[in-house]
From TrEMBL:
Gene3D superfamilies: 1.20.1050.10, Glutaredoxin. It comes from the Eukaryota. GO terms for molecular function: glutathione transferase activity; maleylacetoacetate isomerase activity. This is Glutathione S-transferase A. Residues 216-230 have a biased composition (Basic and acidic residues). Residues 6-88 form the GST N-terminal domain. GO terms for cellular component: mitochondrion. InterPro entries: Glutathione-S-Trfase_C-like, Glutathione-S-Trfase_C_sf, Glutathione_S-Trfase, Glutathione_S-Trfase_N, GST_C, Thioredoxin-like_sf. One of its GO terms (biological process) is L-phenylalanine catabolic process. It comes from Lingula anatina (Brachiopod).
Amino acid sequence: MADTGKDMLLYWGSGSSPCWRVMIVLEEKGLSDCEKKLISFSDKGHKSDEILKLNPRGQVPTFKCGDIIINESFAACLYLEDTYKSQGPPLIPSEPARKANVLQRMFEVPSFTKKAMEDLLYLYMFKKPEELDQEKMTKSKAALKEELAMWEGYLVKAGGTFLDGGEFTMADAIFFPSLAFLVRCGLKLAPTFPKLAAYYDAVSKRPSVEKSWPPHFKDTEGKPHLADVL
């Protein structure tokens, strides 16, 4: 009998890419019955005593699997794949070259998110328009465009729908939520990056992604901060 997620608890926030990664992997591994508690960032739910007891950093995802607590999204995803390897499709290939490729792409995602989030979107989110350094913003947009071109190249090289070619892997579970957040923020992938545009459309339709799609993404529109990047 397959294991279930009944002894698991995930605290998550809608729209959080790290939370979404874990939720995709839970769906892929057949652990969708994991108990999930949605927190409100605006109400500082991630700083509640309930979460701080499990995660002293006061962040989400905060994830409990039995007596094991894992609060970093990469760590939680890798733990789930290793522990429930026989359930669902393998998200990390066993063949050495493919495994290396998937791990490489996974651990490149923080470089992608830094250029997209820390160097650009966070400035829009946490500064007033008159406080923005327009020269810096222009440079950050150019750097993001270069980063997107790199990922476009990875898809061309892979020669398939996903980052490792024809199979959905952990690299996609880690990368896609960050890309989807940029699209929500106005990024237009086509026609500049046709492979990324096709990738976004394909992964959006994957059941694990559809089932874990952030609720407020469905009901509201994001700010068009990145509409002029490409």
